[in-house]
Specification:
about 120 residues, mainly beta, 4-stranded antiparallel β-sheet, 3-stranded antiparallel β-sheet, 10 strands, about 0% helix
Amino acid sequence: MTLAPETTDLKVQLQLTDGWFTVCDLNRLTPGRGVAALLPDGRQVALFRDRNGTLYGIDNRDPFNGAAVLSRGLTGTHQGRPFVASPLLKQRFDLVSGECLDDASVRVETYEVRSA
């Protein structure tokens, strides 16, 4: 089955300290997959869109090894909590809170995300 491309003028935006930052067109985010984006200050954010259309943004850097890889992780849910699993060591990070589901003492930064 072939899916028709989504046609929309909506943009994905992140809340930064000085306001909303436009990252990309909403149709660039494939449900269930991540994408990395470079922020104005040089940090990277991993953006996700779930199959319900909910948007999430977390730091792209894996705190266990420092690699910028979380955007390439596998997404899923655990007890109703959406997560991404690092592609390297497989630790799972809650996409809402940033908490590591496998080590509660570790977390990644989260970002408020919207489409506008």
